[in-house]
Amino acid sequence: FRYVNSRYVSPPEAIWRLFSYNLHGKSHVVVRLPVHLEGRQNVYFAPGQEEERLQNQAVRHTKLTQFFALNATNVAARQYLYHDIPTHYTWQVPRPERNLGNVKQWCPRLIRMANVTLARMYIVNPLDQDRFHLRLLLLNRRGPQSFQDIRTVDGVVHETFTAAAV
Length: 166
Hints:
Strand order of the largest sheet: 1-4
Oligomer: single chain
Shape: elongated
Order of helices and strands: HEHHHEEEHHEEH
Structural class: alpha+beta
C-alpha cells in the first residue's frame, strides 16, 4: 500500500486562516462545585495510605465547607449564592510558596473574570433526597455559614434538608 502524507483544508478553515482568526485558545474556566452532606465528602487516596488520608485535616476542607467558612468570616461574600462564588473568588490550593497554611480556601479574585468563569454544581439524583434538596437550597440561599444554617428556615432548624426545602 502507498500512503500520501498530506492534509486537507476545508473552505471554512481556509477562511478562518485567511482572516487570521484564532483557531485554538482558552475561552472559559469551568469550576466544578461539589454537593455533599456533612462529613460525607469524597476522599481520594493511594493504596497503603488509607489511614493517613482519613486522619488528614485537609481532607475535610472542600469547596462547599470552605464556602460556609468564607461566609462566616467575610460579610461581603454573604451576598453571593454558592454558584456565584467562583466569579468573585478563586479556589486556592495550598502551596509552600504562597504561605497560606495547609488549608484549601476561597480567596478574593484580583482580576474579575465574570464572563469567562463558569461554575457548575455536580448533578444530584432526585432519589438521593437529602443531597438533592441541599443542592436546591444552595441554588437559592445566600450566605449560609454552616450545614445547620442552611437547614434553618424562619428561625426553625429542620432535621433534614428536605424538610427545610419544603
